[in-house]
Amino acid sequence: MADSVVYLYAVTDAPAEEPADEGALAGVDGVPVRRIVSGDLAAVVSSVDPTRFSEEALRRSLEDLQWLERIARAHNAVVTAVARSGPVAPVRLATVYLDDENVRTLLDERGAEFTAALDRIRGRAEWGVKGFAVRAEADTSPQATEESKPGTAYLMRRRAERDRAARGLQDAAEAAEAAHRALSAVAVASRRYKAQDPRLSGRREEMVLNVAYLVDEAGAEALRRLVERQQGEDLRLELTGPWAPYSFATLEEGP
């Protein structure tokens, strides 16, 4: 068995010279990152243990959430660092090749696809926008006549609260759609994702919008201003980024 196999993070342009600080960048298991160059493309890789990253070991490890989180953090840290100096096309998590030559073969055979992905996101960044329904203030006005029994009054209040919440959610959803149309106008592309459960979002409010936008560097400030203008009584928007363009350049490559 070989002493190591090659973990692939992403593909980027082959620079005239390797960035001076990239040799100090650590990837999975703290191993330094390096580049494999073929033509105009460079694969960003590091060497990893062949036993721990064998096909069988990976099948087991991908079910270990702690392992998965650790690898994902290292993977993302490398992609984010490389993205600071140019366009980067990430590949899926835990993509491993037997040796450098197999990676060069990938660059040669899929070069056109990688080049197209890099050209698509060149000079652009990914921004995330999440929209949350604003919770309506509880209505403390009487909901029943003086003759109403306590139990009846309680049920009437609960029904009124549910109706108010439903109307508020509908209003927020409509505001979110209007915001998405406006934000899409200043973006090159967008990708919608499912709304996150409050347990994942960390917010008590209902999420009504979850979109990634690909934006030219020159348009970032316009996006920020537009997000501020789209805030309203029914909707709160949360802007994050800029990020490496995972939503628009990730390629599902495998060995």
TrEMBL record:
InterPro entries: GvpL/GvpF. It is found in: Gas vesicle. Keywords: Gas vesicle. Pfam families: GvpL_GvpF. It comes from the Bacteria. Belongs to the gas vesicle GvpF/GvpL family. This is GvpL/GvpF family gas vesicle protein.
